[in-house]
Write a structure and sequence with these properties.
Blueprint (H helix, E strand, L loop, with lengths): L2 H5 L1 H9 L5 H19 L14 H15 L1 H4 L9 H24 L10 H17 L1 H18 L6 H7 L1 H17 L3 H15 L2 E2 L4 E2 L4 E2 L6 E2 L4 E2 L4 E2 L4 E3 L20 E2 L4 E2 L4 E3 L3 E2 L4 E2 L4 E2 L8 E2 L2 E2 L6 E2 L2
Parallel strand pairs: 1-4, 2-5, 3-6, 4-7, 5-8, 6-9, 7-10, 8-11, 9-12, 10-13, 12-14
Antiparallel strand pairs: 15-16
Length: about 325
């Protein structure tokens, strides 16, 4: 009912008495056709059954609760003091973990080896995953603090750690990845992907939660960075905008289906810098201390302390990527 119908109920009654026309006449057949698609011709339900899907809105709340617990005066309440901060953190954790446990339970319906018929077992596993995630939050904060310090030391425009924490999309994406990676490793892959997509939507930075990233990691500017599932990044690594650490090719099995789970993304060792627009593809290794220049296309390993940049082809003067 429109607001006009609510204001003038006689109009609503007259509208209801009118014969169906236009799109209204199509509705019964459309509903039937869509039911046929869902139930028979294009059925995509996981294991053929309706499930309670994890909620993106709930995972937004989980992320907000984690941020408030990790950095309460930055992402919680700016008026907290020594007498109130622990109470606030405790309440934020309690609310967040309660929401997370239910989302973990829902996400476990989509784990291939999970016994989805045993509801009690699902609840117990969800509780165990949530508890272990909670225990790892101090380690997550330690990792993030190292990232903040790397950003402050690596960006001459940074005026304070607080500025970086609140204003740098690279840091926001990395915090979300640190949380998502813990969930991913604990078996809550569906929720981990939701968190990574929330970060992607907010920052334009796409980090698969399976990627392993060492401490003191800094993404400067950040928009357009892509880091694949099996990428391994060492400590004190810095990436700039539009960098891709991706796969070169995908292995297929005998029937042509993609083989999942293979290591297909780069290994970036400690103290590497990758400048804007560089693309590194395949299971190659960038040796420790190397610098990869802007817009380089790299598909082979390079030894430690390499300087890889766009060279000039003497014969035609056109740039080529090494």
């Amino acid at each position: 009912m429109s607001i006009h119908d609510a204001t003038y109920p006689d109009r609503a009654a007259a509208r209801a008495a009118e014969p169906a026309s236009g799109t209204d006449a199509l509705l019964p057949s459309l509903v039937t056709a869509l039911r046929l698609s869902r139930e028979q011709t294009h059925k995509i339900r996981h294991r053929g059954r309706i499930r309670e899907l994890p909620s993106r809105d709930a995972m937004e709340q989980v992320l907000g609760g984690c941020l408030a617990a990790l950095f309460p005066t930055h992402y919680g309440r700016p008026d907290l003091n020594d007498g109130s901060i622990d109470f606030f953190v405790g309440q934020a954790l309690s609310d967040m973990l309660r929401t997370l446990q239910e989302q973990v339970r829902r996400g476990l319906f989509f784990v291939a080896d999970q016994d989805i018929e045993n509801d009690q077992a699902l609840r117990e596993r969800a509780a165990a995953i949530t508890a272990e995630f909670a225990r790892r939050l101090p380690d997550v904060r330690a990792d993030v603090v190292s990232d903040l310090q790397a950003a402050y030391l690596g960006d001459p425009a940074a005026t304070s750690v607080s500025e970086i924490l609140l204003c740098y999309p690279g840091i926001q994406a990395v915090i979300c990845h640190r949380l998502a990676h813990r969930l991913y490793g604990l078996g809550a892959q569906f929720l981990a992907r939701l968190l990574s997509d929330i970060a992607h939507a907010r920052t334009g930075i796409d980090i698969h939660p399976g990627a392993r990233i060492g401490r003191s990691f800094f993404i400067d500017h950040g928009t357009g960075v892509v880091i694949g599932q099996t990428a391994v990044i060492g400590e004190r690594v810095r990436l700039y905008q539009q960098v891709t650490l991706g796969a070169k090719r995908f292995e297929v099995d005998d029937d042509g289906s993609l083989v999942k789970g293979l290591d297909r993304h780069p290994v970036v060792e400690d103290d590497v810098v990758v400048y804007a627009g560089a693309t590194v593809l395949g299971r190659v290794t960038i040796g420790r201390g190397s610098v990869i220049g802007g817009n380089v296309w790299l598909t082979h390993s390079v030894p430690p302390n390499s300087q890889v940049h766009q060279a000039h082809n003497v014969s035609n003067g056109q740039p080529r990527s090494l």
